[in-house]
C-alpha cells in the first residue's frame, strides 16, 4: 500500500509566511526558510510553498526564498504562485523546486499545462484548484487567490487538467480554508473519483483527527495543513502517530 503523505504548506506574502481564513484576514506566522527547515527535519513528507500574492501583484515568485529553501530541505519541494509561462516553470525548477504548481495561469491558458508536462514531465507539474461551493450544488474554480470565479466547474477542470498532462492536483476548499472544521470530504472524493492522478486535500485542517479522517473517508493521496503546524498546536509526529493508530499507511518520522 502506498503511504499517505503529510504536507505542511507555506503561504508566503511579502517574504513572510502568512495564514488566513477563507483566503483573507492574513496574519504573519514566520520566516519561510526557517519553517521549511523545521518541517523537513520534523518528518514532513513534502513541503509546498505558495507565493499567494504573486499573481495579483503581477510578478514572479520570490526566487531567492525558493533557492534558500531548496538548499535547506531534504524532502520534495513544490512551489507555486505567479507561474504564467514556461520560463517561470524553468526558473523555479532551476532554483531547486522539485515540482511546480500552477493555478490562475493554467485556467486562463490551459496549454501551459501540456507544454510544461511535455517539456519537464508530468511528475513535475501540479495543478492547484481552489474550489468554492455554489447554491446549485456544484463547485466552481476560483482564481487569483480565491477572489475570482472562473465560471468553470471544478470536477470538469480537474479532468481537463489531467488530460493536458498534470501529474497531481492540489485541491483547496475555499469555504473550509482556515476554518479548522475539517476537510471538505464530498468535494475531495468527487475530484478523486474524476481523475486517476494523485490528489492533495487542502483547506480546513484544525487538528490531527481531521487528517486521519480525510485519509480514512476518501482515497486522497496526501493531506496539506498549515495552521496546526505554524501555531505549534500539533506536530507532524503527532499527526503521523494518530494516523498509524487509525490504520492509515504512513511513513514513519525519522528525525534528523
UniProtKB/TrEMBL annotation:
Q: Which Pfam families match?
A: His_biosynth
EC class, as a word, reads lyase
Per the record, what are the reactions this protein catalyses?
A: 5-[(5-phospho-1-deoxy-D-ribulos-1-ylimino)methylamino]-1-(5-phospho-beta-D-ribosyl)imidazole-4-carboxamide + L-glutamine = D-erythro-1-(imidazol-4-yl)glycerol 3-phosphate + 5-amino-1-(5-phospho-beta-D-ribosyl)imidazole-4-carboxamide + L-glutamate + H(+)
Q: Which GO terms describe its biological process?
A: L-histidine biosynthetic process
Pathway note? Amino-acid biosynthesis; L-histidine biosynthesis; L-histidine from 5-phospho-alpha-D-ribose 1-diphosphate: step 5/9
What biological function has been recorded for the protein in this entry? IGPS catalyzes the conversion of PRFAR and glutamine to IGP, AICAR and glutamate. The HisF subunit catalyzes the cyclization activity that produces IGP and AICAR from PRFAR using the ammonia provided by the HisH subunit.
Put simply, this protein is called Imidazole glycerol phosphate synthase subunit HisF
Please give the organism: Pullulanibacillus camelliae
List the gene name: hisF
Amino acid at each position: 500500500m502506498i503511504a499517505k503523505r503529510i504536507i505542511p504548506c507555506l503561504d508566503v506574502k511579502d517574504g513572510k509566511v502568512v495564514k488566513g481564513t477563507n483566503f483573507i484576514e492574513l496574519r504573519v506566522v514566520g520566516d519561510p526558510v526557517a519553517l521549511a527547515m523545521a518541517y523537513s527535519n520534523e518528518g514532513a513528507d513534502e513541503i509546498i510553498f505558495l507565493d499567494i500574492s504573486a499573481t495579483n501583484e503581477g510578478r514572479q515568485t520570490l526566487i531567492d526564498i525558493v533557492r534558500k529553501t531548496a538548499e535547506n530541505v531534504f524532502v520534495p519541494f513544490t512551489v507555486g504562485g505567479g507561474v504564467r509561462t514556461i520560463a517561470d516553470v524553468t526558473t523555479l525548477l532551476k532554483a531547486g523546486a522539485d515540482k511546480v504548481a500552477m493555478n490562475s495561469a493554467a485556467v486562463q491558458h490551459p496549454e501551459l499545462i501540456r507544454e510544461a508536462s511535455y517539456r519537464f514531465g508530468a511528475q513535475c507539474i501540479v495543478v492547484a484548484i481552489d474550489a468554492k461551493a455554489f447554491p446549485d450544488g456544484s463547485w466552481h474554480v476560483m482564481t487569483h487567490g480565491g477572489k475570482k470565479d472562473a465560471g468553470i466547474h471544478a470536477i470538469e477542470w480537474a479532468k481537463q487538467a489531467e488530460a493536458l498532462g498534470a501529474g497531481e492536483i492540489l485541491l483547496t476548499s475555499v469555504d473550509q480554508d482556515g476554518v479548522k472544521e475539517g476537510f471538505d470530504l464530498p468535494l475531495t472524493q468527487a475530484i478523486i473519483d474524476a481523475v486517476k492522478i494523485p490528489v492533495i486535500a487542502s483547506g480546513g485542517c484544525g487538528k490531527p483527527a481531521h487528517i486521519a479522517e480525510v485519509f480514512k473517508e476518501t482515497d486522497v493521496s496526501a493531506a496539506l495543513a498549515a495552521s496546526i503546524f505554524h501555531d505549534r498546536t500539533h506536530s507532524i509526529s503527532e499527526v503521523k502517530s494518530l494516523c498509524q493508530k487509525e490504520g492509515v499507511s504512513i511513513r514513519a518520522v525519522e528525525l534528523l
